[in-house]
UniProtKB/TrEMBL annotation:
Residues 225-373 form the Oxidoreductase molybdopterin-binding domain. It comes from the Archaea. The chain crosses the membrane at residues 12-34, 65-85, 94-111, 117-137, 149-171. Residues 397-493 form the Moybdenum cofactor oxidoreductase dimerisation domain. It comes from Natronoglomus mannanivorans. It holds the Pfam family Oxidored_molyb. The keyword Membrane applies. Keywords: Membrane, Transmembrane, Transmembrane helix. This is Molybdopterin-dependent oxidoreductase. Residues 468-495 are annotated as: Disordered.
């Protein structure tokens, strides 16, 4: 690569980075980091198999990696444009500035920023840095010597980064933070959450009830919706006789409120994965909220709509179950933002994709609704496959103890796991594990198996669940798409 080519691509990359920095600095004025809107656009339009791959391989880090990829893409495109546009004459500068303004305005629009003084200020803050950087790096006095050129690039890059970081702090102080911190309010408990059997609390084992801060989070949104509970209302409408709205305070004070431990698992979870947890939820049965509106005979689906545009649907017949909740609490507090504040759907025995967060509307529909993930090739019913996972192992002298969790979807005709079998020799011999008494009808069962092993420290552990009718969990391995992963979980354990 020639020196001239290297210079041009380097300048283009730094200019692109300066634009990203300007977008970051403008965040407090426009309500967010504009590349997030691009990332969400990609998520919404990605095929189901790609979403599965990203979630299964990266988990919580899938969306940060995507945003990083978007930023890297901006820098790469800027470098490519600079390479294809050798001379940065005055006329071309004006064209570049115009394109920058248009692109920035489009990103702000995608972010949901309306026309305002803040938006105009944000536009100036975002567009000025790349223009200044381009001017500094293309001025006639810039040395052509490679070492001096790179020194100049480093100086400009560091100066820009420090300046934009300082500007961001100033704008946050003057305009206020993008999201007002919200402290979860304590709830008046009606029942105490089960503690579980302490005999199952050993190295690596999850607690009987997953703490809210440790519960997995998966959704299609990069920036979580910020909802003011004073302005929020839950609409219940559609083909009903008496549509109505429920305020946040009315939801919390609803006389039908109850508490319910429920296991939730992501449909993208691989066998043995971490996208599973058991929360202690507080909410109002969906059946009561729908019944209060008086559904007509034409009702087919109940569609739940979210503040981020997500939607899901369940058949009207399923809504008759009293264990499907519009949940507003988790643990002893109201929901955290990442778990769906102010309210979310909770459907026991179904995968998490059915459990809409950030609820704004419950629509009783007279036609079948094609939900977000169903439209991308996922199973519409999303019943949780029977599963058992290895989680913990501990040694006490010659005695070794292994354990984990087991769970089954309710719509399989199984309301609880009847037993768990475990092998510590790769599946050659099977033994019955001890299973923790059921915490609740919709909660996982923890299991453990203890054995003597004075001369061995490595074990090939395999586990399988037994359903209440004696059916053994299927050994057949399948990927999460479209109906959830199946297969026996195997783990090499060293103690």
């Amino acid at each position: 690569m020639s020196s001239s080519t290297t210079h041009r691509t380097t300048i283009g990359a730094v200019v692109g980075a300066a634009w990203v920095g300007g977008l970051f600095a403008a965040g407090p004025l426009v309500g967010g980091f504009a590349p997030d809107a691009v990332a969400e656009w990609i998520i919404v339009r990605s095929p189901g198999w790609l979403s599965t791959l990203a979630i299964s391989q990266l988990g919580f880090y899938a969306k940060p990696v995507l945003v990083t990829g978007v930023v890297a893409g901006v820098v790469a495109v800027s470098a490519a444009v600079a390479l294809a546009w050798p001379r940065f004459s005055r006329g071309k500068r004006l064209v570049a500035v115009g394109l920058g303004i248009v692109a920035t305005a489009a990103l702000f629009s995608a972010l949901g920023t309306g026309v305002s003084l803040g938006a105009v200020g944000g536009l100036l803050v975002a567009v000025a840095p790349p223009y200044v950087v381009a001017h500094l790096l293309t001025a006639p006095r810039v040395p052509s010597n490679r070492r001096r050129f790179l020194e100049r690039v480093g100086t400009v890059a560091v100066g820009s980064a420090v300046s934009l970081a300082g500007l961001r702090l100033v704008l946050e102080w003057t305009a206020g933070p993008q999201e007002s911190p919200r402290v979860e309010e304590p709830l008046e408990r009606r029942v105490s959450p089960p503690d579980g059997d302490p005999a199952f609390d050993f190295e690596g084992m999850p607690p009987a009830i997953t703490p809210p801060g440790s519960h997995y989070v998966v959704d299609i949104t990069v920036s979580k919706p910020t909802i003011d509970p004073e302005e929020w209302a839950l609409e219940v409408d559609g083909v009903v006789e008496e549509p109505y709205e429920l305020s946040y305070d009315e939801l919390l004070a609803h006389e039908g409120s109850l508490e319910q431990p429920t296991t939730m698992i992501c449909i993208s979870n691989q066998v043995g994965g971490d996208l599973i947890g058991t929360g202690h939820w507080t909410g109002v049965p969906l059946s009561e909220l729908v019944a209060a509106a008086g559904p007509t005979e034409s009702a087919v689906d109940v569609v739940t709509h979210a503040a981020d545009g997500y939607s899901e649907a369940i058949p009207i017949e399923l809504v008759e179950r009293e264990d499907i909740l519009v949940a507003y609490g988790m643990g002893d507090r109201t929901l955290a933002t990442e778990h769906g504040f102010p309210a979310r759907l909770l459907v026991p025995g179904r995968y998490g994709m059915k459990m809409t967060k950030w609820l704004t509307r419950i629509e009783v529909a007279d036609r079948t609704h094609e939900a977000y993930w169903e439209a991308r090739g996922w199973d519409e019913e999303a019943v949780v496959e029977t599963m058992a996972y290895v989680r913990g192992a501990e040694r006490d002298g010659d005695r070794v103890e292994v354990g984990g969790v087991a769970f089954a979807g309710l719509e399989t005709g199984v309301e609880e796991i009847s037993g768990v079998e475990v092998s510590v020799d790769g599946g050659e011999q099977w033994q019955a594990a001890e299973v923790e008494p059921q915490l609740a009808p919709h909660a996982w069962r923890r299991w453990r198996y203890a054995f003597e092993a004075p001369d061995e420290t490595e074990f090939d552990v395999v586990v399988r669940a037994l359903e209440s009718d004696g059916t053994v969990q299927t050994e057949e391995e399948s990927s999460p798409r479209p109906s959830g992963a199946t297969g026996w979980h195997r783990m090499s354990v060293s103690v």
